[in-house]
Amino acid sequence: MNILPNHVIISNVINLEMGDLSMEIKSKGYKVIDNGVFLSYAMEPVEFIFNDDFIVRASVINDSGNKGSIDLEIIENKILNVKFINPHTILNFGTMEPFHLGTLNEKEIYANFRINAMGDNRAYTSYSLFYTFFEKEE
Asked: What pTM did the predictor assign?
């Protein structure tokens, strides 16, 4: 397989110039606006900041219990604090369906998270957070 500068070869069948490549990800009436994986620095929370108007803060909490849960807390009508409590109880702990964050720039915004905590179930050392933010399609 030859790869030429400024070109992408997909499965030796499609040859597109990079300038022509445009892709959207859609599923079940939602359009992906951002997704990725965040690898934590120790156990520090991560913040997703939307236009300085709204913040989604994700944190991992180990209360030495055996029941996993996700708690949502709104702070000062600007920050949604998403607490993943005892995620060691389930591999790929997280939300099953996208949940509604709110309306931003007249668009309904949703999120979906999966988390894996590293360390033992009594002392986490770090975590990986898989995230996807969606826009509800009209």
From this structure: 0.77
